[in-house]
Amino acid sequence: MAYRKLKEQETTKEMTHFPRLFSPFKIGSMEVKNRIVMPAMETHLCDPEGFVTSEIISYYCTRVDGGVGYITVENTSIEPAGRINDGMLCVHEEKYVDGLKRLVDEVHGLGGKIVIQLNHAGKEALTYFTGMGTVAPSPIPSPLTRIMPRELSVPEIEALVERFANGAERVFKTGADGVEVHMAHGYLVNQFLSPESNIRTDRYGGSREGRARFALEIVQAIRAKVPKDFPLICRISADEYTEKGIKLEESRVIAKLLESAGASALHVSACNSASAVYNIPCYYLEEGCFIHLAAGIKAVVKVPIITVGRILRPEMAEEVLEEGKADLVSMGRTLIADPYWPKKVEEGRMEEIRPCISCNRCIESIVENRLVCTVNPFIGREWEPGSRPLPRSKKVLVVGGGPAGLSAAAAAGEMGHKVWLWEKEPILGGKYHYASMAPKKEYMRKFLDYLIRQARKYAANIQCNKEATLENIKGFDPEVVILANGAKDEFLQIPGVGNNHLMDIKGAFNGAESLGTKVAIVGGGPEGCELADYLLTRGRQVTIIEMRRMLGLGLVAHPRHHISERLKKGGAKILINTKVIEVGHGFIVVSKRGEDTQRLEGFDSIVMSDLHKPNDSLVELLKKSIREVYVVGDAVQSRTCLEAVYEGANTVLNL
Ligand SMILES: Cc1cc2nc3c(=O)[nH]c(=O)nc-3n(C[C@H](O)[C@H](O)[C@H](O)COP(=O)(O)O)c2cc1C
Ligand code: SF4
């Protein structure tokens, strides 16, 4: 099986400073070499019928090769009506066993350990995909889709218990090292456990024990079909982070019941679909924000406890283990971003880690498409970078030192080309240099620093303050030019804009101290919002004006929610659905949809968000004398960091 092996590095390998993290552990019959767990994360890399593909095998094997203790295969459906979408793996029939076995064998061939997660989405299944209605313990609509589910009858519930048990038996047949039952995140088992979604009055509802009965019967039914020491892990939401949902105290009782029923370990997560903005904590939430829940459960049970939730640094993971708050540490997005995180940490190669920036593009991508990652362009095609022999080392000039240019320079250099990079600004990073200055964006900074280190490592020469022109590019005589020179920024043409009294976003970040007290920001897209947040934390009074229906459009939904909340809490005056008619010294004339114009006055500064236009004017001219000219990133069209990084790295594959 093709997957991407970590290149042998020339750096001196130090031994790990994280002895607990890299100590072995046992869950039932499964011995793992370290305490790092890859949690279940849907990839949408299976085929539409839910069968294992070579892409999914490559994806998981790369993470096994990266040194993780064990991987948990993404949620796998035990019943067609319980599939979330066509990106969900299946194990509801015998025909799925062979494919899963192939995955298990490949993982074992690499010396890895593998657990498969079972799930039924209940009322969170997407009906437009399943073609069936949704089911749930009680007829309460899904907080996400608003669709009303049908209440399950007792015989149907008993049949579903059997379905989970059959799924687990099939998992056992594949030779996997364990099975995990998804009892968290608002899916069917969680729906039964929660007083918010289960208002039944029969034996599957009512009391806490009644609500827990479905989960307990699943555990008992699985235990009856697999050996006593076969790891059966229950993943729970110890706090649903909703008003009426489960809280830690109740989860402690549920945990004890699960332990008595036969669970081998508990994977302690949080949230349901109504609190999804906290479930996969984005950069506005604290690192390790669910560790206290694991510790709370660990205090009342004897089975091993796995913690999860924005654990990005080995120091934090080590501390959790040292303080006895959990026995294993699950790191999801960390391992999407860099599958080799465990090996790099163990070998002291911290500088080589490609950090997850907690942007949550990954979770947004899998609703209807395959998994993507802002910082890792090779998800599900991990073998590609190493699979194309280099026909000839070429002289490559990369123009622009933002993420697209840095990504292209590093990738081209790593492949063996001779690479130069010219950046017209005094600093590298492009517009993301400024984005990383905003509050809570430290991991964006870390990622830029990583890209810069990689580019410096692989590119022969990086020059800042070097503007590329047709003449000097021709004079340099490269064989390949990659134009990654960002968008052409312009202000929206409205009356008053030409009067030279406006600042752009970049200038505002750079010159924040000179903006005065009252600042207006025209444009509440991602950049405008982040600048507003930055200024609010510096004690400014901020008015933000956006003509669309909400702030932060263009951001992933989770950070968009949190930044809107931050701006509201920070006291920003927010005007949406509001068009700017005119700007002048200290004033702005606006018109809210359907209303009269209004003059807003007294601003010390007015900042205008730029329109980002394609920046490809050099292309055709260059093509007359240089055979290979490519344009990547915002120079093609303004988009996000993901497209920039992806296009930079991807273009190079074809040189
Ligand atoms: C793309 C993606 C898919 C996910 N799919 C699942 C899943 O199938 N089952 C599950 O229990 N959790 C799923 N999760 C949640 C993760 O297992 C994990 O709890 C979450 O990402 C927080 O951990 P982290 O901060 O280490 O990433 C998913 C998360 C992501 C980012
Ligand atoms: S998409 Fe963003 S949050 Fe998800 S793994 Fe990649 S960097 Fe992390």
Task: Describe the SSE topology.
Layout: E1 25-27, E2 30-32, E3 36-38, H1 54-65, E4 70-77, E5 89-90, H2 97-109, E6 114-119, H3 127-130, E7 135-136, E8 150-151, H4 154-174, E9 178-183, H5 188-193, H6 208-223, E10 232-237, H7 248-261, E11 265-269, H8 276-279, H9 291-298, E12 305-307, H10 314-322, E13 328-330, H11 333-337, H12 341-346, H13 361-365, H14 384-387, E14 395-399, H15 403-415, E15 418-422, H16 431-435, H17 442-458, E16 461-463, H18 470-476, E17 480-483, E18 488-490, E19 503-504, H19 505-510, E20 518-522, H20 526-536, E21 541-545, H21 557-569, E22 573-575, E23 578-584, E24 587-592, E25 597-600, E26 605-608, E27 611-613, H22 617-623, E28 628-631, H23 641-653
Parallel strand pairs: 3-4, 3-13, 4-5, 4-6, 6-9, 7-8, 9-10, 10-11, 11-12, 12-13, 14-15, 14-17, 15-16, 17-28, 19-26, 20-21, 20-26, 21-22
Antiparallel strand pairs: 1-2, 18-27, 23-24, 24-25
Helix pairs in contact: 1-2, 2-4, 4-6, 6-7, 15-17, 15-23, 20-21
The structure holds flavin mononucleotide (FMN) and iron/sulfur cluster.
Q: What can be said about this structure in brief?
A:
By secondary structure, the protein is α/β, with parallel strands linked by helices.
Descriptive overview:
- The protein is an alpha/beta fold and 655 residues long.
- The protein folds into three domains: 25-365, TIM Barrel (Alpha-Beta Barrel), CATH 3.20.20; 389-487 and 614-653, Rossmann fold (3-Layer(aba) Sandwich); 490-612, FAD/NAD(P)-binding domain, CATH 3.50.50.60.
- The protein contains 23 helices and 28 strands.
- The strands form seven sheets. It has an eight-stranded parallel barrel with strand order 3-4-6-9-10-11-12-13, surrounded by seven helices.
- Helix 15 links the parallel strand 14 (395-399) and strand 15.
- Helix 4 (154-174) packs parallel to helix 6 and helix 6 (208-223) packs parallel to helix 7 (248-261).
- The longest helix is centred in the N-terminal third of the chain and has 21 residues, at 154-174.
- It is globular and about 75 Å long.
- The model is unreliable at 8-12 (pLDDT under 50).
- Iron/sulfur cluster binds at residues 333, 336-337, 356-362, 373-375.
- Flavin mononucleotide (FMN) binds at residues 39-42, 74-75, 117, 182, 184-185, 235, 269, 280-281, 308-311, 331-334, 362-363, 366, 371.
